[in-house]
Each structure stands twice: as structure tokens, then as C-alpha cells.
Design goal:
The structure is a homohexamer. With about 160 residues, chain A is of the alpha+beta class. Chain A contains four helices and seven strands. The first copy, chain A, is globular, with a radius of gyration of 20 Å. The N and C termini of chain A lie close together (about 10 Å). The relative contact order of chain A is 0.18. The interface of A and B includes residues 22, 46 and 48 of A.
Amino acid sequence: MDFGHREEHTDDQMLIVQANIDDMNPEWTSFITDKLFAEGANDVYWIPIIMKKGRPGLMLNVLVEETRLAAMEAVIFSETTTLGLRYVHASCHRLAREFVTVLTRWGPLTVKVGYHQGKLVQMAPEFKECEQIALTHQVPLKQVYEEVRSKFKEAT
Amino acid sequence: MDFGHREEHTDDQMLIVQANIDDMNPEWTSFITDKLFAEGANDVYWIPIIMKKGRPGLMLNVLVEETRLAAMEAVIFSETTTLGLRYVHASCHRLAREFVTVLTRWGPLTVKVGYHQGKLVQMAPEFKECEQIALTHQVPLKQVYEEVRSKFKEAT
Amino acid sequence: MDFGHREEHTDDQMLIVQANIDDMNPEWTSFITDKLFAEGANDVYWIPIIMKKGRPGLMLNVLVEETRLAAMEAVIFSETTTLGLRYVHASCHRLAREFVTVLTRWGPLTVKVGYHQGKLVQMAPEFKECEQIALTHQVPLKQVYEEVRSKFKEAT
Amino acid sequence: MDFGHREEHTDDQMLIVQANIDDMNPEWTSFITDKLFAEGANDVYWIPIIMKKGRPGLMLNVLVEETRLAAMEAVIFSETTTLGLRYVHASCHRLAREFVTVLTRWGPLTVKVGYHQGKLVQMAPEFKECEQIALTHQVPLKQVYEEVRSKFKEAT
Amino acid sequence: MDFGHREEHTDDQMLIVQANIDDMNPEWTSFITDKLFAEGANDVYWIPIIMKKGRPGLMLNVLVEETRLAAMEAVIFSETTTLGLRYVHASCHRLAREFVTVLTRWGPLTVKVGYHQGKLVQMAPEFKECEQIALTHQVPLKQVYEEVRSKFKEAT
Amino acid sequence: MDFGHREEHTDDQMLIVQANIDDMNPEWTSFITDKLFAEGANDVYWIPIIMKKGRPGLMLNVLVEETRLAAMEAVIFSETTTLGLRYVHASCHRLAREFVTVLTRWGPLTVKVGYHQGKLVQMAPEFKECEQIALTHQVPLKQVYEEVRSKFKEAT
């Protein structure tokens, strides 16, 4: 197996940065998400909300280290239409992770696994690899996932 | 009591007109809703959806008589950003409705009631009137509703 | 294997019945759902929508045979607060289904499978049984699912 | 009346624990909710969100005392598919609550009431009891609520 | 140009106040929003959530200065049906703002602009003014926006 | 200008195909969307819904010509986890469309325009091109859109 090195840990120096947006072209969301990740965001997600005057808006959420706040603000103010943002301090608890290779009928495929207090609790086939197999071999994506999960289960 | 005249009926000549919109300023939704009602829409509502490329969009829905289709299209094409719309045929079953007056501590207030096969099944205080009472008398809106509902119950 | 008897088929005599509701206590939704199923609904689901004046409402949807319309209307008008409803004609394509038993470390468990044109395309562990095993044996529910899926895969 | 004992108070030792999940079977949500409540969660709720690559995900939220964090983490990591979670510190302001009995045509029923600074501001019929009456007596649930609210209003 | 006076700044004394509500008439949301703004809220928004027993609820969110907490609580407890609320501390970063006038074919119209570190990053036509022009001159609202944006671009 | 050839028209031979899904890995949605488009879908979108037992599910929607129904069913049954689907007949009204080139500071860029009854009602910068310019020239995406819209306005 191909063991990774990250240890389970809690990071207390995180921020959740939020902006409510009701006057922006929603086409831009994926571009903004990509840019925030490129500038160091740990996670980016959007929540449908109902704003002033019953307007259907979107709340942008960015999970990021405190030290990267200015970089996030630069992206948010230049790429979205918001006139302000807010943030709250947060702690992130991350499992120890490693990448494991399993042998399937289509060759070796990667599984990301997670450990909580030394115990394996998560296993997730790598989406991009599975998608590629499904496209190349013309098989249902769910069948690829099923095979990967089953082979992982046999091996552990 | 002040009985209205509408009979319970089913109208089979209705359309549900829909447009998926992912590139429009959401500020415009209330204006568009108002304009569609002004042109004869029976109902207008918006549904948050996820469109191509994972974009958070809005589906505009208009319930309208078949004969008013062109008027709805005129509004939708001139006021939204869509390049197309779709519609399905629908039937509407509407209860017999009447407006009833109940006497509350703040004076007479209106209740809209609905009958299914001659039986009273719905009663709804008029929002605008209750809101006005709450503002004028500085009482919680929910207290106004409670009073109206209770007085209606006593009277029937 | 324990083969069921339902054949894949399309039913063209179905209705989708809808009501937009913006003035009802949401606590009642599960009760209403249960009652509609008890009266013959094939499916019941709720969609968050934005209604007139920007109000956050719920659209009740009932999938049902045309012959059961009156029974659905009776429930909808007596249990919800709506003054009207609408319906569109729909066709339902249902896969051939059967229940298969697989042997797991916790004993036999049921899998519901689906066939499209004679080919097995779906397999779903029965939620209620898996939940019971998770509770009784104090194991994660996802582990029960994993085991059932894996055993099914081995057997086919 | 049957007065309860809880006093209005603010608890500053609370956490909101969150995990964004885009690769889990949604069938498991109710089981996970139940388990978190069983382990001491004060509240559990799910928010539809849009995650990386435009994926429709769910954000699990758990409101819980700081001292119960480890128990929540144990459930979240063993039952969901997440590789991490985050939490923010929160304060909870809870009203004084008591249970009051009102006499209805179907016998005594319970109302949960809430006091803010000594003033009665909330009253909520107990859902489970009302649902039971609706099922037993074959009356609309909304009629049961209406009766309970009306009787409570008369008594106060 | 008509320069405003607000400077870009970060306010660390803010609260996000939240209440999950599953038993309230959604008609009341706009009234509650208005009242919270009138009592000093900086922002008010609602998020559709899924609560205990799978109930579709609404999470009320109020962004407000710490010193206005009691006023928000008074509104929330008297106008909604909640028995409790929670809040987290937040910082708000607000851009420097000013109102600029541009000359359009329909006369002068206002644009709200925002500056981040002295650089113009936002420009937003005033909705109310544009809506009025659209109504008065019977032109599409999007055309009014387009004209205002274009004239602003020419002038800068 | 580079005029396209499509005429405004209404197509009455369309279907809206729907499947409610509450037991599928949401990671698969983009793959399924892509596959449906590849097989001839005119549009694909997902709606967050609340299903039986309060489960947060997703409703898959496919807008497609009646003649492509079997191809859509093949994808839906092989790639999702549903045991059934439904469809309703729909009409699609599509504007006349053409692609117009405008000259910007970054070179020529494409605008998609739409005509309703011979009148230009829509203009939309091509997202992919604008995104590429924003990435290549390191300018905000919204600035690219603003420039394209402004240049188009000048030219017409």
C-alpha cells in the first residue's frame, strides 16, 4: 500500500468567510470558486438563500486559514459584486488521510482513506480516475465505484 | 356574513410556463413577478435549481390560461435573459371562495375561506390587513393572526 | 434467488398533482405525506420555492393514478391550507423489480433489484433492515450497506 | 396549570459543528440525525449546498455543548463519509419553557409555552399528541391544532 | 461626482443571530425581516433547511452589532415561533462606498460604487430608481440597467 | 456581423423526463449530466427536494425530444439508482439566435443574441471565451463581461 503522511489534527486558526450576493450573474460562480481554490481556500461552497425583498440570492462560503484572509478578500471583492463580507473563527478537525491502490479489472485505481484515532473510518474512490475509466471502457460510473469499493473491501 | 360568488371548478385550459435562468441579476425577480401578474398570470414562483456546469440557477414558473401565453412570452423574453421557454398543459382545481368579516379587538378583519364540495375546509386571515393592524397597534403579527382565527372559530 | 413478478412497464394514466403553499405550519408535512401514501399516492415530495412577495413556500407534489385524483384532493384540501391545486398528465416507466436475499455476517438481508430490458441495472439494500442491523449490532450503517453490496456483487 | 422548571438562560459553551458532504447516500441522513440526538446533540439540521465542481451536497449541522464534541465527532466520522469537520463557538439563548394542559373535545392535550423576560411569547401544541388525535378520531390535523390553540387562548 | 464619506473598515463587534423555525406561517417572513431592519439589523436572510423528522424548515439569520442583540431578541421571540436562538461572533469588512450620478436618456440615475484599498471594484445601479424608470417609461428593466452600466463605464 | 440561421419556432414534440433520487452518490451528477447531453438532451437540471421520510433528495430533469426518450432512459437507468422515471409532454418556444462578434481591448469576442418576433431581446457574452480572457489577461471576469456588453451596445 501507498501510505500518505498527513496526521489527524485540529487547526484552530481557520476562518469561514461569507458574502450574501443578490445581484450577480450566477454563470460566474464556478470561475470564482476555482480562483479562490487557486489562492489557497480549503473549501468553497454556495448556499441558496432568500434575501431582502424576498430576493433569491446566493451565500458564498470560503473556508480558509486566517493568514490567507487578504487573498480571499482580493478575489471576492474583484470577482463578485458584494460590497462587504463577514467572517467567523473556526476550528477544523481533519482525519489522517492516505491514498491506497486497489487492483480492478480495469487496472489499478486509487482510494482515499481516512483514519479517526487510528481506525479506518472512510474510503472514497477517486472520482476523476473512476470517471476516466467509465468514459474509456464505456461502463456505468456506478459500476466502476462498485468494483473499486468491493476490491478495497476484499483487500482489508 | 359577506358571501362571495365564485364556484368550485376545474379549469382544463391552463399552462405551466417555465424558463431556466442562470445568467440573470436576481434583483430583477420581484419586478418580473409583478409584471407577469399584471399581464394576467394566475401564479408566479421561482425554484432554485442546479444547471449545466453545476451553476446555481433559478427556474421561473408561470401558471396561466392558455389564451394568455403570448402575453407571458412577451414579458419573459423582454425582461429575463432566457433564449427559450417551455410549457405543459395543466388543469386547475379551485375551491369556492368567499370573504368573511370577523370582529376583533382592533375592529373588523377579513378572512378568506374556501369550500370543497360545499364544506368549509380553508380559512386564511388577509395578510395585508393583519400586517397593517400589527404596525398600527404595535402588536406581534402572530397575535393578530391568533385573534382572527379564534374569532372566526367562535363565529362558525 | 427469490424472483418477484412485476414486469417492466409504462403507465400512461398518471397525474402529477401540485399545490404551492406559503401559509402552512411545516410540522404538518410528514403527516400529510403519510396520509397521501395511505390513500394511494405512488410518490409524494416537497420542493422549496419562492412565491409571491418573496415568500419561502413549499410545493407539494403527488404522483398518482388518474383514478385516485379525488382521493388526493380530499386529503390536500382537508389537511393543507391551499385554496387550489393543479395537475398534469404523466407517464411512468417502472423497471421490473424483485427482492433478492443475500447472506451477510449478520444473517440474511434483502436487496431490491431492478431490470431494464432484462438487464440488471439497479440494486438497493433495504433501508429498514440495514438500519435495524446497525442499531442491534451497534455498527455503522454505512458498514452494513457496504457488506450487503459486496455480498450481492459476489453472488452475481 | 402544570408549570415546568426551566429558567430562561444563555449558554455560552456551545458549538456549531459542520461537515460538507457530497458523496454520501442521502438515505442515511435520518439515521445519522437520530444517532447524534441520542449522543447528546441539542439540534441537528441539514442544508442543501453547492460544492466543488457544482455538486449538489448537504451540510450537516450539529448544535451541541462543547463537552460533547468528541461524541459528535465519533458519530460523524463513523456514520458519514466526511474526511473532516469544522466548528465555531456559539451562545444559545433559551426561553423559559413549561408544559400546559388544555381541555379539548378529544380530552386533555399538551401545549409547550415559552417565556421571554417573564412574558408568555410562545405556545406550541405538541405535534405527536395532535397527530395521534388526528389519526384516532379521523379529523384533519389542522383542525386539532386550531382547537388546541383556541382553547389555550380562552384559558389565558 | 458626489462622493460619500464612508471609509473601508472592518467591524469586529458583530453577531450572526440564528433561529431554526419549523412551525411558523411563512407569510410572516417579510414582516419579520422588515421589523428586524427597523430595529437596527445590518442584514437579514432566510435559509431553507431540513430539520428534525425531515421537516422543511427555515433558518432565520440576522447580522447585527453586538450592542443591538437585545433588540433583535425582542423581535425574534415576539414575532417568530422559536423557543431559542443562537449567535456567533463575527467580523464585517465593508468597502468604502459612495453614490455616483450618471446621466441617462431618462435623466440622472444613481450608481452605488465600492472601493477596496482605494480601487473601484464595485458598481451597482440603484434598484428602486431603475424599477421606477422601467415602470414610468415602459421599458424593460434590464435595458435600464444596461444603459446605466454603460454610461457609468463611459464616464470612468 | 456574423448572422446565424436559426429561426424562432415552437417545438411541440418535447418531453420533460424526471426521476426522484434519494440513494445516489451526488458526486455522479456532473457525469450523468454530461452523458445525457452527449445522448441528445436539450437541457439537464437538478432540483433539491424532500422525499419520503424527510430525506433530502434530488430530482433529475431532462428536456428532450420525444424521439430521444429511449436514449435518455438508457442513461438514467444505467447511471443513476432510480427504479422508475416519469415524463410529461411539453412544447418549447426557442428564439431565433445568432452569434455576433464584437471587438474588445482583448480582441474579438462572441455574443449570442436572441430575437423575439424579429426584435433583438437577448444578448449574452460567451462564457467560455470571457473566462479564457480573464485567465490569460489576469483581469476580473466581470470586467470582461462589462467590456463585451458595452462594446455590443455601442455597435447596435
